[in-house]
Amino acid sequence: GQNIDQPTEMTATEGAIVQINCTYQTSGFNGLFWYQQHAGEAPTFLSYNVLDGLEEKGRFSSFLSRSKGYSYLLLKELQMKDSASYLCAVPITGGGNKLTFGTGTQLKVEL
Amino acid sequence: KAGVTQTPRYLIKTRGQQVTLSCSPISGHRSVSWYQQTPGQGLQFLFEYFSETQRNKGNFPGRFSGRQFSNSRSEMNVSTLELGDSALYLCASSPTTSGGAGEQFFGPGTRLTVL
Predict the structure, then answer these.
(1) Any residues with CB less than 8 A from the CB of B93 and at least 6 apart, and which?
(2) Phi/psi of residue B26, each to 5°?
(3) Residue B43 at interface with chain A, using a CB cutoff of 8 Å
(4) A34 contacts A24 by C-beta, under 8 angstroms
(5) Percent of chain A with pLDDT over 70
(6) Are A42 and B90 a contacting pair at CB < 8 A?
């Protein structure tokens, strides 16, 4: 089976850096996704990691360690609009688009 | 390119009724997946369709069913509604069914309330 854990809530200050962690347990591994979801809206794709290391994309970076079953999403230069839920998800192996999601980390950015 | 569209956006039903939700994927996308999102359980996978065939199924009772048409549009049906079925139902489309590399694009969802 698959199991994903991430913190429920985090609070950070505008302009700061925040790291959102995700640990996972899967019977196989086929990459890891991060999605952002603003309240009342659809999740939107942020990143996909399949190899170990850091992937940088503007203010957002995502890190993966397959040996540790661990990923994090790093948000730099936080803006108020970054207040949202951040979802970690892993796909099943063997084909298909089934994603198992963590419960999401609600990030609140304050002044 | 237009995004994933879902209809209706909001729906109120009573216990025991049935409901049908519709999803139109991004043009050219053949994979459509459905998810249920609730505050307590988060996003949970219902099922995936590809080329009119169910590829994967989540752990939901048989009251939840779906289908896909030749134009890739998909519908999901919930029969004998229960209060616990109140949720946001999200549809996601993907150009592939290759799993890991297949980024999924989500629609705005249908908010179902069961009274």
Answers:
(1) B4, B23, B25, B26, B29, B31, B32, B33, B72, B104, B105, B107
(2) -60, 140
(3) yes
(4) no
(5) 96
(6) yes
Give pLDDT tens digits for B48-75: 999 899 988 899 999 999 999 999 999 9
Is there a contact between A21 and A7 (Cβ–Cβ < 8 Å)?
Answer: yes
**Which residue of A lies nearest to B10 if distances are taken between CA atoms?**
A40
Q: Which of B92, B99, B109 lies at the smallest CB-CB distance from A96?
A: B99
Contact at CB, B104 and A44, closer than 8 angstroms? no
pLDDT tens-digit map of A34-62:
999 999 899 999 999 999 999 999 999 99
Mean pLDDT in residue range B42-48: 92
Please check whether residue A50 touches B, CB under 8 A. yes
Query: What's the rounded Cα separation, in Å, for the pair A12 and B42?
Result: 23
- Please measure the distance between the N-terminal and C-terminal CA atoms of chain A and give it in whole angstroms: 41
What are B43's two structure tokens?
A: 């996003």
Q: Do B42 and A48 lie within an 8 Å CB cutoff?
A: no
